[in-house]
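Bench notes, afternoon.
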Amino acid sequence: MSWQPEQHVELHDFNNLTKTLSFNFWDVCWYKNEKERAAYIEYIDEQYNADRLTNILRNVSDIIGAHVLNIAKQDYVPQGASVTVLVSEGPIVEVPTESFEESPGPLPESVVLALDKSHITVHTYPEYHPTDGISTFRADIDVSTCGEISPLKALNYLIHSFEADIMTIDYRVRGFTRDIRGHKLFIDHNISSIQNYIPEEIKHLYDMIDVNIYQENIFHTKCKLREFDLDHYLFGYTKNSLSVKEMENITNKLQQEMNEIFYGKNINPGSIRPH
């Protein structure tokens, strides 16, 4: 069935479809010694502490027109944080036509969507390589909604909220709902790619790969920054303080780390092509 933007299907009861967006991003850094490593992890842990993450999730709930019912947040020792927000449907009488379009969602200045019986969560994972001077910071955000709209409308804001070297994005529609004749509906909107919910100016910055299972309503997109600037990955100093050999060595290590994250497997260093 092909869905039109102006189309509204009359349902038998509440829309029981569950739509889940999983947004995962990585920030990669190189450090010279244990002191620099500790300083970077402390910095990134503070940048993404529970209070800031809570504000981000509140903005997500605003964008999708939700009421916040409950917030649980925690900063962990020695590092890491988690936030869980339970939300319910906002007081929106009509579902806006924008919810049916494959297009980037709004930033926090406008509220256009609705959802019901849903939650938004984030967990952070700072970690580092034991010997190679590489540190990676990962955050996992899940937006799970029930109702007539897709949480993909929050993706634009999430991408703008983090400086991501690598992103993996999953979207899945589960369950079914029924129309007034009892006919099952396993999805209530057209979608061909998660990339259609990402602004053009962002897509120009990343190499992107799709892995989609259309018959199961499962969509996956992974993204890696296209341009490589070593200064972006050095903490507390610039490449001007490094020798040519040091820059080459650090660049190879960083690119191997990002390629392994992007492709989801360990890679022989000799197989990495220069960026």
